[in-house]
């Protein structure tokens, strides 16, 4: 057994052993979002089609994915602006189609993920639209992504997130019923509510720095999500806080605490 497998197995056993000690409100049903898909499995990779399949098979609430708009209007998955030396937003899709992920898969498109998502109706796509290089580009990206999703008929299976307030503002403007959560951490729950957001989606550090925000968001009817929670201590803490969602690279570890 590899060192990595031994480490993960130890973490899972520890999680199971202490799960009964997690003191939280049993009426709160915290759900799991797989960060960049459930990629921490043999043969998978971040932001890959296989990671989406894994998240669905696992039964996650959502599979988070990062999207950029290419120069010629394709929506492709990748976390960073560049992949293998190619700037995604400045490239045509033809320049990207030959690139391969760590597991050998081609760099996927949002449309390919949608076709997988349409085969089921439980795991949502948590679509993070990455900031683009200008306000105009942010607005264009939001519109293209929404058009692709709406035309594919999976709006009910899609939640939207972004670090860009301009992208989020456009998503809400396009449809106030869009489930839009803000990532950047510089807006209070009161500001989010006033601007029409569905939820608060902040980092561990932000929520530790603002310990009242989770309860304030709940009182305002906002959903609460925290990212990217990978340690047992942090998982326990946020379960005790009763957050609605936890985004993690280790879905199985978190599930061990929830069972």
Question: If you had to describe this structure to a student in words, what would you say it looks like?
Answer:
The protein has 259 residues and is α/β, with parallel strands linked by helices. It has a single domain (31-258), classed as Phosphatidylinositol (PI) phosphodiesterase (TIM Barrel). Helix content is 39%, strand content 18%. The chain has helices spanning 3-18, 49-58, 93-96, 110-117, 135-152, 165-174, 189-194, 204-209, 213-219, 232-240, 251-258, and strands spanning 31-34, 62-69, 75-77, 82-83, 86-87, 124-129, 158-162, 180-182, 199-203, 223-227, 245-248. The strands form 2 sheets. The chain has an 8-stranded parallel beta barrel, surrounded by 7 helices. It has a two-stranded antiparallel ribbon with strand order 4-5. Helix 2 links the parallel strand 1 (31-34) and strand 2 (62-69). Helix 5 crosses helix 6. It is globular, with a radius of gyration of 18 Å. Residues 17-27 have low confidence and may be disordered.
């Amino acid at each position: 057994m590899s060192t990595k497998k031994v480490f993960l197995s130890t973490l899972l056993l520890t999680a199971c052993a202490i799960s009964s000690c997690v003191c939280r409100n049993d009426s709160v049903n915290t759900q799991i979002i797989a960060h960049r898909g459930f990629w921490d499995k043999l043969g998978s990779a971040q932001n890959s089609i296989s990671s989406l399949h894994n998240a669905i098979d696992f039964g996650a609430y959502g599979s988070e994915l990062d999207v950029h708009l290419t120069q010629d209007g394709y929506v492709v998955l990748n976390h960073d602006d560049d992949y293998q030396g190619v700037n995604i937003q400045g490239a045509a899709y033809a320049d990207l189609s030959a690139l391969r992920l760590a597991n050998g898969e081609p760099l996927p498109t949002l449309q390919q993920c949608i076709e997988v998502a349409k085969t089921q109706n439980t795991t949502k796509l948590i679509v993070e639209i990455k900031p683009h290089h200008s306000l105009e580009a942010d607005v264009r990206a939001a519109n293209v992504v929404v058009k692709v999703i709406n035309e594919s008929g999976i709006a009910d299976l899609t939640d939207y997130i972004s670090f860009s307030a301009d992208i989020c503002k456009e998503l809400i403007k396009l449809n106030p019923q869009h489930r839009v959560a803000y990532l950047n951490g510089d807006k209070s729950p009161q500001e989010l509510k006033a601007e029409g957001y569905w939820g608060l989606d902040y980092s561990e550090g932000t929520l530790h720095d603002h310990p009242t925000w989770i309860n304030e968001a709940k009182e305002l009817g906002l959903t609460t999500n925290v990212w990217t929670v990978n340690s047992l201590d942090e998982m326990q803490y946020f379960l005790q806080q009763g957050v609605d969602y936890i985004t993690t690279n280790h879905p199985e570890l978190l599930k061990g605490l929830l069972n």
